[in-house]
Specification:
The complex is a heterodimer of chains A (230) and B (302). By secondary structure, chain A is of the alpha/beta class. Chain A is built from 7 helices and 10 strands. Chain A is 32% helix and 24% strand. Chain B has 302 residues and is an alpha+beta fold. Chain B is built from 9 helices and 4 strands, in the order ααβαβαβαβαααα. The chains are: A alpha/beta (230), B alpha+beta (302). The site of adenosine-5'-triphosphate has 12 residues of chain A, from helix 1.
């Protein structure tokens, strides 16, 4: 299994109410999972726990077969190399080109430049940005910027891709393009977990839907819809 | 590890933070120059000790006609007293290594030579200078043995240890060196604080890069390395400037100004500079590296 939450509770230091309250669930290899729920329901908290940017207050989080609470600090980078991440705000370096932004992610984990020259064009082709490698982020549309971010997350062919509202800043047409791309990446063997408020996308894709409300899992359907209107 | 990549990151970092980098270089240079100078003074003191302790003597001044110490109540020293003193000195061998007798005429000749450019010579007559025994000890610290045997004896006006006068002078130099060292330490503390602050600003101004690095799984070492290298490089540059300053101190202040005017004493050689320079470099780089390391541990968390 790729992700396992075992009775996980997360209470932020400044907060009384838990952001996640006794959550237990599993995500299998190859799944595509939507995380839905109203604002403040705990979606980002869930994803940050998977990345070990936060630690659970109670319970344990397993990712790619490792118990994160027992993983020592110096092993975290190795874990993150197997988990791609994509955010609403793209998080690109504004003064680097598309190619350099993706290469940066490889350089900082010590990949040789021969390898970088080979895999960056490949991943640019996967995300459909051939010919735009020389542009800087401000010369790209929002959708294209998110494609760069996805390319960066996917360039190491991670086992798991975490996306926190990847289409949150994009118009519906562009969002569908991004979803097609994430679907393609999922079909290439990467497990995808994404949070979203976009009902149209969830309803179209018909994949597993986990709904959170006030830190509780209120719904977990294998071929679900967005379905607020219960 | 990609050397070219790390090097280009370091270059960007240094340029982006140029004013802070310059401030670090200057404070490191000033504090290390002071540190080096204080070490140089210490080397100078030990050079002078070597030089002078080799030459110091115990002087036993004999009574002249006008002497008014109680031991000179019997007037000028007699030939018999002088011979007895000589014999007693001989009996103190091997502590007493060499014995010279200096007559009034010898003393006057030496005095004239020493002050040949001064009008004082014409005011002093041969008679005003005492005759003396100059004694060289095999162990200059055992001055007390000689003093207790001869001080206060009839015919002896005074027993004088040059070493004690020198020691006063050396204590003064030692005090100066300590003050320089203390100021240098304070400056080094200031330098560390400045580096800590610089690293904080650097970490903040590059938080976008470092957060992406963490995200894609760069190791802590890799994230911190450019910052550490920047700090070490700035400190290294500062240290080089400080060493240039030290070399200037030696070749201009000591060799061209002090040495010609004070020819009677020895000055530190280049070997001392050669020994101090690496200490300065290592101190600067290590201090900056450690300051940066501990700051970054706090500001660039996993
Ligand atoms: N760093 C933090 N410190 C304290 N409280 C936090 C922190 N992050 C989130 N919270 C709180 O935890 C709860 C869950 O927040 P979370 O960000 O997980 O929600 P979300 O489902 O991602 O919301 P959104 O859809 O608006 O992104 C909220 O009540 C929020 O105020
Ligand atoms: Mg959120």
């Amino acid at each position: 299994m790729v992700i396992l939450f075992d009775h996980v509770t997360k209470v932020y230091a400044s907060q009384q109410r838990p952001a996640l309250d006794d959550v237990s669930l599993e995500v299998e290899k190859g799944e595509f999972v939507f995380l839905v729920g109203p604002s403040g329901s705990g979606k980002s908290t869930f994803l940050r726990l998977v990345l070990r940017e936060e630690r659970p207050t109670k319970g344990s989080v397993w990712v790619l077969g490792k118990d994160l609470s027992r993983l020592s600090n110096w092993k975290i980078p190795a874990l993150r190399r197997q988990v791609g991440t994509v955010f609403q705000d793209f998080r690109l370096l504004p003064n680097k080109t598309v190619f350099e932004n993706i290469a940066f992610a490889l350089e900082v984990i010590g990949k040789p430049s021969g390898h970088i020259k080979k895999v960056v064009p490949e991943v640019l082709e996967v995300v459909g940005l051939e010919g735009k490698e020389g542009r800087r982020p401000d010369e790209l549309s929002g959708g294209e910027q998110q494609r760069v971010a996805i390319a960066r997350a996917f360039v190491n062919r991670p086992m798991l891709l975490i996306a926190d509202e990847p289409t949150g800043n994009l118009d519906p047409g562009t969002s569908i393009g991004i979803m097609k791309l994430l679907d393609r990446i999922n079909k290439l063997g990467t497990t995808v977990v994404m949070s979203t408020h976009d009902s149209q996308i969830v309803d179209q894709m018909r994949r597993r839907v986990i709904e959170l409300d006030s830190g509780h899992v209120v719904r977990d359907q294998s071929r679900g819809v967005y379905g607020y209107a219960r | 590890m990609r050397a070219t990549f790390v090097a280009s990151e370091v270059g960007t970092g240094l340029r982006r933070n140029l004013t802070m980098t310059i401030a670090v270089i200057i404070t490191v240079a000033v504090s290390l120059a002071l540190f080096g100078a204080s070490l140089l003074v210490r080397a100078q003191v030990s050079t002078m000790k070597d030089f002078w302790y080799d030459k110091v003597e115990v002087s036993i001044f004999l009574c002249s006609k006008g002497s008014d110490t109680p031991s000179c109540a019997g007037g000028a020293v007699t030939a018999a007293q002088r011979d007895q003193i000589k014999t007693d000195l001989e009996s103190l061998r091997p502590l007493v290594q060499e014995i010279f007798y200096e007559s009034k005429a010898d003393a006057y000749a030496r005095f004239k030579e020493q002050f040949k450019n001064s009008p004082i010579v014409s005011n002093v007559s041969e008679d005003a200078l005492p005759e003396s025994f100059r004694v060289k000890l095999s162990d200059p610290t055992k001055y007390d043995v000689v003093a207790s045997a001869f001080a206060g004896r009839p015919g002896i006006e005074q027993v004088n240890d040059q070493r004690q006068i020198l020691d006063k002078f050396f204590r003064l130099l030692g005090g100066l060196q300590l003050i320089a060292l203390l100021i240098a330490l304070v400056m080094l503390v200031v330098t560390v604080l400045l580096i800590v602050n610089t690293m904080r600003v650097a970490a903040f101004s590059r938080r976008r890069e470092t957060s992406i690095m963490r995200l894609v799984g760069a190791s802590n070492f890799y994230i911190q390395l450019p910052f550490l290298l920047e700090a070490a490089l700035a400190a290294g540059l500062g240290a080089v400037l400080a060493i240039v300053g030290l070399v200037a101190m030696k070749s201009i202040l000591i060799d061209q100004v002090l040495a010609p005017s004070f020819q009677f004493t020895a000055f530190v050689g280049w070997d001392a500079v050669l020994a101090i320079a690496p200490i300065m470099l290592v101190t600067g780089v290590l201090l900056a590296g450690l300051a940066a390391f501990f700051t970054l541990r706090k500001y660039l968390r996993v």
